[in-house]
Amino acid sequence: MNFTFNEDDIAFQDAAHRVCAEVLKTNAARYDETREFCRESLDALGELGFWGMNLPEQYGGVDISSIAMSLAVEEIAYHCAATCSSLTAHFLATDSVLIGATEDQKQTLLPQCASGEKLGAFALTEPGAGSNPAEMRTRAVRTSDGWHLTGTKHYITNGAFADFLVVYAKTDPDQGHRGISAFLVDRHTAGLEFSSPEKTLGLRGSHIYEIGFDCVLPLDALMGEEGAGFATAMEVLDRGRVEVAAMSVGISRAARDASLAWSKERIVGGKPLCRHQGIQWMLAEMHAQLEAAKLVTYKAADARDSGQRFSLESAVAKLVASEAAAKVTDAAVQVHGGYGYISDLPIERYYRDARITRIFEGTSEIQKIIIGRAITA
Amino acid sequence: MKILVAVKRVIDHNVKIRVKPDHSGVDLTNVKMALNPFCEIAVEQAVRLKEAGLASEVLVVSAGPKAVQEQLRTALALGADRALHIDTEVALESLAVAHLLKAVVEQEQPELVLLGKQAIDSDNNQTGQMLAALGGMPQGTFASALEVEQGQIKVTREIDGGLEILALALPAVITTDLRLNEPRYAKLPDIMKAKKKPLAVTTPDALGVDVSPRLRLKAVEPPPERQGGIKVASVAELVDKLKNVAKVIA
Ligand SMILES: Cc1cc2nc3c(=O)[nH]c(=O)nc-3n(C[C@H](O)[C@H](O)[C@H](O)COP(=O)(O)OP(=O)(O)OC[C@H]3O[C@@H](n4cnc5c(N)ncnc54)[C@H](O)[C@@H]3O)c2cc1C
């Protein structure tokens, strides 16, 4: 077992650190306050090739290890969790294509996704089907020269800002989850209706939308094979959960670092906060929780590169890292006292931003179901 | 035009540095290291000259332990064509580096040598000047603008009280100031490509340079801790304190 990062991992982490510490950090508080979409930060990452981190070189990506990618995602979340969420939603869309699409579809679409020209959205969740997407009601019916798509998706990250959406729909409702197929839908297709962005607790720079579909798609909008959609989505989420874990680690690390710095500066009762045992124990716990979260995250990332199934590792990473983020950001508010509750400092934003990591891409309860089933099988 | 850029590995400028308890130096354990910001400006300038068709090749060189290859890779990712690592564990002084660079200049025959005006760790601000003197080359230090013209280079220098413009015959040595350019960020695909660019390794011995230290470091002290302020009762007392305690007025 080797716990050191290699040269490439460090080079990518460094590259991410540079742009994040300068560009993303500058925009993060503004996005949070104004709910402006994180376009500028996303585009800055796009220009530098970060939109293609999850893709192999043959499709315009950069072929980096999942560890390097996790470190970069962590760095992005450290400075702006909203931008991180929009970027990882883009990865859910492009991972869908990578895993489920035909070679032609990959060649046509992926290079522009990697280069920062085309932003994707991943549309699985519906008002009546969240934790159990197999219950989805969106329908795609084959017509003589294409597909007729009807239904409603919601909470779709990037939604109206996306150039294309990967939409999961039932093509054969009698087949249960085996009757689900994925479709590549251009943003400008007639018959798409976007809500205004939802007013969210955190990640305010990363918009989510309800989208109504009543549209006609060309035949080749079917992504890959009919009936393979659900399997694709599950594989995509296995990958995505490693990124949510990395995002959780990034937010936790930001909260830990801020708390350490604050506790050394702030004098209470004649000495720095960090010299009071009660606070020092909080800091110690934050640090230990963060370290544990990092390890499961890097382990899942490593498993993701192994070529074996890694559903268990990624569920463990997501569960542990997201729950740790909740505890660490909560403790960060406590260490800061009233200052942690006021938006002059980013602490209360970390607290709000961290909350989503226990919900999206499968709630903590769903992760426990996955883990429980795997270890009792 | 071939350009040689010298770069140094230093502590990242965001790191709060700590002096070792025995005052023998700065604590480097687990400290994030980076390309010296002024060197990064030098690399950027060289790459811009190449992109503008004014340079044919950009060679980066760094002297130090194996770890400096990290910074050489960064420079390659930013657009340099090849790299040279002068491998040594000796703590190098400016004059030793200048001698090493002179040896590289003799081998490589660049028409322009770009360096940062100083490194943010030791703040010596002398390697470029020493190299120019040793190599008998004209120098333009603290450059805030460069213009390459037929066989010469116009350098705008930031000096006390204004700007000075020099025209230097090539080959020349130029050290870069903060306002010369804003370095780009490395692109991920370029970081991958940098791995395939040539990185040669040599040693001070192979270059025929003796790098043994000539100075002895006696102690490194952190700056004095900031003391709390005091209240003065009158202007007269203020003037007195400024004169006799702070010693900022005569
Ligand atoms: C900011 C944000 C961004 C999002 N982005 C996207 C996106 O880009 N694409 C997309 O498709 N979706 C997206 N989602 C949707 C997200 O994935 C779902 O909200 C999530 O999967 C939970 O589904 P739900 O909201 O329907 O909750 P429900 O499924 O209604 O769950 C409610 C509660 O019941 C629990 N629960 C459910 N089933 C079980 C069970 N079997 N046993 C025990 N407990 C259970 C859950 O854990 C939860 O606590 C996003 C959501 C948010 C808030």
The CATH architecture assignment of the largest domain in chain A turns out to be: Up-down Bundle
Mean pLDDT of chain B: 94
Q: Proportion of β residues of chain B?
A: 25-35%
Number of strands of chain B: 11
- Total discrete domains of chain A: 3
Report the CATH superfamily of chain B: HUPs
**Name of the CATH architecture of chain B:** 3-Layer(aba) Sandwich
Which outline of chain B best applies? globular
- Alpha-beta classification of chain B: alpha/beta
Domain Acyl-CoA oxidase/dehydrogenase middle (chain A): 121-214
Domain Acyl-CoA dehydrogenase/oxidase N-terminal (chain A): 7-117
Protein name (chain A): Acyl-CoA dehydrogenase
Family (chain A): Belongs to the acyl-CoA dehydrogenase family.
Short description:
The complex is a heterodimer of chains A (377) and B (250). In chain A, the strands form 3 sheets. A 4-stranded mixed beta sheet of chain A has the order 1-4-5-8. In chain A, strands 2-3-7-6 form a 4-stranded antiparallel beta sheet, with helices on one face.
Please specify the SSE layout and strand pairing.
The complex is a heterodimer of chains A (377) and B (250).
Chain A: H1 7-34, H2 39-47, H3 66-79, H4 81-100, H5 103-114, E1 120-123, E2 139-142, E3 146-157, E4 164-170, E5 180-186, E6 192-194, E7 208-218, E8 222-223, H6 229-265, E9 267-268, E10 271-272, H7 277-305, H8 311-336, H9 347-355, H10 364-376
Parallel strand pairs in A: 1-4
Antiparallel strand pairs in A: 2-3, 3-7, 4-5, 5-8, 6-7, 9-10
Helix pairs in contact in A: 1-2, 1-3, 3-4, 3-6, 3-7, 4-5, 4-6, 6-7, 6-8, 6-9, 7-8, 8-9, 8-10
Chain B: E1 2-6, E2 9-11, E3 33-35, H1 37-51, E4 57-64, H2 68-78, E5 82-87, H3 94-108, E6 112-116, H4 127-135, E7 139-149, E8 152-159, E9 162-169, E10 172-176, H5 188-194, E11 199-202, H6 235-244
Parallel strand pairs in B: 1-4, 1-6, 4-5, 5-11, 6-10, 7-10
Antiparallel strand pairs in B: 2-3, 7-8, 8-9
Helix pairs in contact in B: 2-5, 3-4
The structure holds flavin-adenine dinucleotide.
